[in-house]
Write a structure and sequence with these properties.
Length: 252
């Protein structure tokens, strides 16, 4: 079911002018029931002027009367022929002027860390064109030398949930195609919530790579034997060879 225009203002009017329950108003306006209750308490929408849904051809008075008489009755948005075909147009996401200069950096970040995303997905996430994405992929962009990869979520160009959804869609597509992926690629295809819930895998530091076969356990008996074999007497340790001058002095 469609939602009324100016939903919060419509909820304010219904709270002030009817006895309809908060649940009925919430279902009609698409708001949460607690938010409607906050409007009644004066904690939400303070200063918002009520928007009459009857005068603005969104509800009928008969429908409101039925809802007041029956708490289970659901309000229905009145059909408005003038609103037919006015659905939101599909196209590139609008990017504010203050953030457009950072958009190439966000594209570079997506291309670098999520190469599985298609040009169409990147275009929807940050609001750009496919030729721009292609030039950054091929490093032929006119400003590629001065660009730095920056997370588009940190720049406010898209939401983390939108990025996760796009990554999950790419993961499902690659899984359906049966492409073999490395461990690093699989980690990139996880959403933020999934990656945070995963347990950290133990990794061997690069400084001791190749020494995996050596035991790191506490073998006290073996260590004690080795220590006893390697003990050196202090006198013998400092018993340095005598120089030729000392040998001549000792001769009678």
């Amino acid at each position: 079911m469609g939602k009324p225009i100016m939903a919060k203002a419509t909820a304010v009017w219904l709270v002030d002018n009817t006895t309809i329950t908060f649940k009925q108003i919430a279902d009609f306006t698409g708001m949460h029931e607690l938010e409607v209750q906050g409007i009644a308490d004066g904690d939400v929408a303070a200063g918002v002027k009520g928007f009459d849904p009857v005068a603005n051809n969104q509800l009928t008075q008969d429908d409101i009367d039925k809802a007041e008489a029956d708490p289970l009755h659901k309000l229905k948005l009145k059909f408005n022929p003038a609103a037919v075909g006015e659905e939101k147009r599909r196209g590139p996401r609008y990017t504010p002027l203050s953030k457009r200069q950072d958009r190439p950096n966000s594209i570079l970040w997506l291309v670098k860390f999520h190469p599985e995303l298609s040009d169409g997905q990147i275009s929807k996430l940050v609001g750009t064109t496919k030729p721009t994405i292609q030039s950054i992929r091929e490093r032929t962009h006119w400003n590629i030398a001065n660009m730095q990869p920056i997370d588009p979520v940190a720049l406010g160009l898209c939401k983390q949930s939108e990025l996760d959804a796009a990554v999950q869609k790419a993961a499902a597509k690659r899984a359906a195609e049966g492409e073999a992926m490395s461990d690093d690629e699989r980690r990139k295809l996880l959403s933020t919530e999934q990656s945070l819930e995963m347990e950290a895998e133990p990794r061997i530091p690069t400084a001791i790579e190749g020494l995996e076969t050596f035991s790191l356990g506490d073998d006290s008996d073996d260590e004690d034997d080795d220590k006893n074999d390697n003990l050196v007497d202090a006198d013998s340790f400092f018993n340095l060879p005598k120089s030729s001058d000392e040998d001549e002095d000792e001769q009678p």
